[in-house]
Amino acid sequence: MTIRTLSAALGLLSALPTAAAAQSLARTSLVPGDGDYIIAPDIVPRAFKLHVPASYNGTQAVPLVLDFHGFSSTAEEERSVSGQLQQSDKHGFIVVYPEGLARSWNGYGCCSTSKATEVPDVHFARAIIDWVKARAKIDATRVYVTGISNGGSMAHRMACEAADVVRASAAVSFPLNLDKCTPRRPITMFSIAGTADTTIPYDGSKPDAPVSNIAGVPVRIQSAPASLAAWKGNDGCSSTLASRAVIPDQVLEDVYTDCAGGVRTGLLTIVGGRHVLYNGYRGPTLSYSGDNAPIDVSEYIWTTVFNQ
Predict the structure, then answer these.
(1) pTM of the full predicted structure?
(2) Could you give phi then psi for residue 147, rounded to 5 degrees?
(3) Over the stretch 257-275, which tens digit does the pLDDT of each residue have?
(4) Domains of the chain, earliest start first
């Protein structure tokens, strides 16, 4: 970690939970409920929120989901609106909401302080996975990641760089943003994107357009179909593409089902959908009226992407 990164990170520490507020790292087992935690995978303390469903009793291994917030958002906001909290209680998995430094993540081409200073966010996420595994009975073959916008870019990055510990990933409102990557093993990777998204355009940057800019960090936006094509190559898929209308004229699904290792990669297109596609969940200070998808995206992620 560079001095610049350290300086930026230390400037955020006042926003982290105090040592008294955070749960003790000495705790050896997790029980149902919610907690705020701090770990230090590098020299900078990092925070995350964690939810253990009421059904968890420590006798049966359960899945683990990491849910990354978007740029300028927080772990608490993601917990409030993504729907993974409700899916956790419904389906019995543990869910973690990591906190990005300066409310940002070091994704491919985005965003802000974390990208500019190359914060080791994949290392942080790996450390969270190890930390939870040491304190709960986790099915190591069922660790998943998801996130929205800048958090969606982290979901792609984790699929590329942590496929040895992550089984599947789902990115909302952000493409891979690379022509290719080389996961350690094939991994199921889905993107969910709205055709009317003006923040991260579904069709990507125009060929003759200047490099766009998100919070001071130059970024070219790959189109959602180009991202799917890139993952087809990453996962060694054939050209067999299964297409269906989840909701005719509103929600369209394209999936490559014949990929190496039996994985799948797909794109769920929300026709007319804008940037924030979460549906049915609201936080105390957040309102995304008009942006939401006509389906419950969190339920789709669990049933179609993860629980396969």
Answers:
(1) 0.88
(2) 170, 165
(3) 999 999 999 999 999 999 9
(4) 3-306 (3.40.50.1820)
